[in-house]
MBL fold metallo-hydrolase
Amino acid sequence: MSSAVDPRAVRVELIGGPTAVIELGGLRFLTDPTFSPPGPQPSGASTLTKTVGPAKTPEDLGPVDVVLLSHDQHGDNLDDAGRAFLSSVPLVVSTGAAAERLGASVTGLGEWQRMSLARPDQGRLHVTAVPAVHGPEGMAASSGPVIGFVLHGEGLPTVYVSGDNASLRVVEEVAHHLGPITFAVLFGGGARVPRLDAFLTLTSDQLPIATELLGVERMVPVHSEGWAHFTQDHASIRRAFEGSAMQERLVLLEPGEDVTLVARELPGIAGDSWRR
């Protein structure tokens, strides 16, 4: 648990691939742990190849209060070392299917279900599970269940973590049901696998559209480097945002970099939108 912080602030640190630390409301969250070294990783009936190791090891990371695991069935979202890491965390939130497979240490949430966590300042921070479509519409039976997350609470910015979602329709639904969204951590990379001729996550060209649909102050992409099946990268994200109305909202981190985002508007509070 982190020390007292500005309630307007969200700190995001990219560890690599889909793995990022998010600090909000005095709590430390970690998305989709992938801590294994480069090499093949089992992923269901197939194998995915990790090309770059994490910027930090679990030992370097420090305490984590909650893991937000979008799904457990694919190696690029939970690799071998990431799976071992789960036992060191007080709370893991994921799909109901992941909870059945991983055991009692995982809390499963269905779409739009919410759980509430105690904050160090005596307030509450809510974690709401939101839909994610991991590929074309109708892919759920093949890819397995996947969720995203919205972190929100009184006096805090609202943060959307997309998980492996390829649907702009879902992005629009999240904005409609849980907006206004202040900041977003969107999984990109345009992931593809040989058995399916389709993108499994948002593409670089879709990220500016998603940013506009959400109306966020800042958007941090993750899941866009470090694996061989990612067809797009940070360079393509930069190109997609260049010259667009969303260019100033993009915060592109390299693994090991972090940013502190500060909400412009909360009740009774005004301030700068970001610092780094």
In short: The first helix runs from residue 58 to 61. The chain is about 20% helix and 30% strand. Confidence is low (pLDDT under 50) at residues 267-271. The two ends are 21 Å apart (CA to CA).
